[in-house]
Amino acid sequence: MFTVTVEQTFTASHQLVTSKGTEELHSHDWVIAAAFKSKSLDSDGFAVDFEILKTILDQECQKFVGGKIEDFEYFKNVSATAENLAKYLFFSIKNQLNGPGKLEYVEVTEATGCKAKYSE
């Protein structure tokens, strides 16, 4: 089994509203990892081309750069937690990939040692 992983970092803010109250607006340097898994390689020897996966991840992350995550349409009705960001990015990336393998997971690091991962 082959796994190809790419990462992207961006800065964005969020302000969670939970049962404990409303957090102050604050920013993170989010680190996003997307991993693609395949049992086989294509004729060029790739499970998936790094550049293709990286370009898709970069485009999806660019939507949030410098902004407030809750201002993005999807998060108007969904809490902007790391878990929900991982899920959103997973499906956004998955829907753009083709090939014999599949997107294995998206992992979001909100702060050092604080990660959330989404997979199917």
Describe the structure using short key phrases:
120 residues, alpha+beta, Tetrahydropterin Synthase, Chain A, 2 helices, 22% helix, elongated
Produce a short descriptive summary.
The chain is of the alpha+beta class.
Describe this structure in words.
This protein has 120 residues and is an alpha+beta fold. The protein has a single domain, classed as Tetrahydropterin Synthase, Chain A, CATH 3.30.479. Helices cover 22% and strands 38% of the residues. The protein is built from two helices and six strands. It has helices at 50-62, 82-94, and strands at 2-14, 17-18, 21-22, 26-38, 102-111, 114-118. 24% of the residues are buried.
The CATH C-level name is: Alpha Beta
Strand content: 35-45%
The overall pLDDT average reads 95
- CATH level 3 topology: Tetrahydropterin Synthase, Chain A
Radius of gyration: 15 Å
Helix content: 10-25%
Helices and strands: which structural class?
A: alpha+beta
- Contiguous low-pLDDT stretches (5 residues minimum) are none
- Architecture per CATH nomenclature, i.e. the level-2 architecture: 2-Layer Sandwich
Order of helices and strands: EEEEHHEE
Physical arrangement of strands within the biggest beta sheet: 1-4-5-6
Sum up the overall morphology in one term: elongated
Distance between the ends: 17 Å
> How many strand elements?
6
Integer count of domains: 1
Counting H and I runs of at least 4 residues, what is the number of helices?
2
Major beta sheet, specifics? 4 strands, antiparallel
